[in-house]
Every structure is written in C-alpha cells, then in structure tokens.
Design brief:
Strand content of chain A: under 5%
Strand content of chain B: under 5%
Order of helices and strands of chain B: HHHHHHHHHHHH
Radius of gyration of chain A: 20 Å
Shape of chain A: extended
Number of helices of chain A: 5
Structural class of chain A: mainly alpha
Order of helices and strands of chain A: HHHEEHH
Radius of gyration of chain B: 20 Å
Helix content of chain A: over 70%
Number of helices of chain B: 12
Number of domains of chain A: 1
Largest sheet of chain A: 2 strands, antiparallel
Oligomer: heterodimer
Distance between the termini of chain B: 28 Å
Number of strands of chain A: 2
Largest sheet of chain B: none
C-alpha cells in the first residue's frame, strides 16, 4: 500500500469513529435532555462495561462458545475484590496483570 | 440545618446538569487533577499500545503508518481488528465498515456525557469528542457524578491517554521486538481496567442488576451472533431493562 492508500483507509476509519463520538454530544449538549433519557443514559456506563467484560471472562474467543474456568475468570475474582475494596484504577490494573502473569507461570 | 459557607460555595457549582461546573479556565489545578485521574488509564495503554505497535509492524505496517492510524482513528480494539484484516488482505471498504460497527458504542457514551456538558461551546465539544474512549468515558462519568469535576479536567482526562496511546503504538512499532509477547501479564491490562471501571460505576442495587443483565445478554449474543454487535445490543437491552425495573420499583431499588 502507498502512503496515499494508508491515508485514505485511516481517514475513512477515523471519520466513522469520530462521528459517533461527536454527533450525539454536539446535538444533545444544546438541548433539554428529558428526565427519562437522562435516567436511561445513567445506566449506560455499567451496561456497556459489563457487555464488554462478560464475554472476555465467560466465553472462548476463538470458537465463540461458553467457557467456564478460563484463567481470565479466575484472576478476575481477586481483581474484582481489590477493585471493590480500593476503587483504584491503577492498582487494579497492576494487581490484575500481576495475578494473570503468576497464573500463566503456575498453571 | 444552617448552611456553612463551604456548602454555599459548593452549591453555586451545582446546576441542572447534575453538578458539573462548566465554566472556568484551564487552571493548574485542572491539569493536575485531570492528569492524576488519567495516569492509570495511561498505565494500561502503554503495554497495549506497545503490543499493538509490535503486531502492526509484524503485519508489515511502517512505524509512520502506525502513528498515522493512531492519530486518525484512536480506537484500540478496532485498530487491532483493522491490522488483522489488512494482513488477511481485506479491502478498505470492508475495514472501514467493520470499524464503524465496532465503534458504534461511542454513540451511547457521547450521549451519556452530554448530560454533564450541557451548553458547552461546540468547538470544545468537537475536540473533546476526539478523546472519548471506553476508559476515559467511564472515569469521566464517575467523576462528574461525584462532583468537583469540570470540562477542563474532563478534557485533560480525555487527551492525555490519547497522547500516550499514539506514543506507545509508535514506540512499539519502532522497538517492539524487545518486548517478549505475554510478558508481565500485559494481556490482562485491558480486562483489569474494565473490571475497575465497572466497579466505580456502581451506585446502588439497580446498577448491579443492570450490569448482570447486560453481561448475561452480552454472553448469549456473543456466542450466537458473529461480529461485535453484542456490545451495543447488550448495553441497550441491559440499560432499558434496568430502567424499566427501576421505574416499576419506584425507588425501592
């Protein structure tokens, strides 16, 4: 691929990534958001993070089937407890990485 | 109860948009607090960015192409997918369409952030939107909600990890062969981040229930339907069921 091909591809990818990030904000920030919509949007963070996380822990990526007992899941339990106890993002990332690395050495 | 002076000064900042104070300037305090909230995200982005740079280099992308992609796209998961599609010889329209669907979830995040950025000028919002990711979104939402957060702090929190991501991916492409694959639990950085980001969004029972419902739907959807529609699908279903439950229960949850 030539530099122009790359620019076109990445430009296209950038555009379809940027517009969903910008348009709702630009539109909604200058309008009255109804109560029900604000309430619904308030539940979006937990819903979206759980939707991102759950398949990582409970499904096999290659075959897209249910999987229990993945090291990701086992490590997630102490990592979750640490997160609940401390609410520390940096600490949780480090603890999770450390435990996952140890699990790789031990298992 | 008599109000203290401190209460009153705090009340001035409480507006209809849930307590966010959207005036002010880019003060030193804003930079410091924004950066303090951003560093854990940066910490997580460094290993993932390095890993991405290494992978992209292995698939034949030059370091400058890696940098260009990170600057123009700035969306980790879709960048990984795009590189693997490039390697398998996919055409540009297919890669762009996939990117669109993978990143469609940002529509929801952008909408949710709008609640706290009401009335902010469009130029600011246009720049702010560039830095919206799963991680910066989650931390900003939690901070806005607990108060004492404003748009400048939120902007720093959006753009610092962005800068870190671009640098890390380029560095990975240039010097990545020195980082052994799977070292130091790198593969778990994102998962660890998601776990804590989920925890800090929980403000009561209804949030736990919503998370469980969205997670269950996501797993089922992921197993049955190929692609990445499970993220937006499960999030919308989960939040809607959670909202209806909350309305039915009328404050008992």
């Amino acid at each position: 691929m030539t530099p122009a091909d790359y620019l076109l591809l990445f430009g296209g990818m950038g555009l379809v990534t940027y517009l969903p990030r910008a348009l709702p904000l630009l539109y909604l920030a200058h309008r009255e958001i109804p109560r029900w919509l604000a309430d619904w949007l308030g539940l979006i963070p937990v819903a979206i993070l759980s939707a991102l996380l759950a398949p990582i822990l409970f499904a096999d990526e290659a075959s897209r089937t249910l999987a229990f007992g993945k090291p990701e899941l086992i490590v997630a339990i102490p990592t979750l407890l640490f997160a609940i106890k401390t609410h520390s993002l940096g600490g949780t990332v480090l603890v999770g990485m450390l435990l996952y690395w140890m699990a790789g050495v031990l298992l | 109860m008599q109000k203290t002076e401190k209460d009153e000064s705090e009340d001035r900042f409480k507006t209809d948009n849930g307590g966010a104070y959207n005036g002010g300037t880019m003060s030193r305090g804003a930079i410091r607090q924004g950066a303090a909230a951003a560093w854990p995200i940066c910490l997580g982005y460094i290993p993932i960015g390095l890993a991405f740079g290494v992978l992209a280099r292995q698939y034949g992308l030059e370091w400058w192409a890696v940098g260009l992609m990170s600057i123009l796209v700035f969306a980790g998961s879709s960048q990984f997918i795009a590189v693997s599609m490039l390697a398998s010889g996919a055409a540009a329209p297919a890669i762009i369409a996939t990117t669109f669907f993978v990143n469609l979830r940002h529509t929801l995040m952008s909408s949710a952030l709008a609640v706290y950025l009401a009335g902010v000028n469009r130029k600011f919002l246009a720049l702010f939107a560039y830095g919206i990711t799963d991680e910066s979104f989650a931390v900003n939402m939690a901070r806005f909600r607990s108060g004492g957060w404003d748009r400048w702090r939120a902007m720093i929190l959006n753009q610092l990890p962005n800068f870190t991501w671009i640098s890390a991916t380029v560095l990975g492409a240039l010097a990545g062969q020195f980082v052994p694959p799977g070292a130091f639990g790198i593969d778990y950085a994102l998962t660890g981040m998601f776990i804590c980001l989920l925890v800090i969004q929980v403000y009561g029972m209804i949030y736990v229930i919503t998370a469980l419902i969205a997670g269950l739907i996501a797993i089922g959807w992921y197993v049955v339907i190929p692609g990445s529609s499970y993220i937006v699908g499960a999030a919308v279903c989960g939040a809607t069921i959670g909202y209806l439950l909350k309305r039915t229960a009328r404050g008992r949850l």
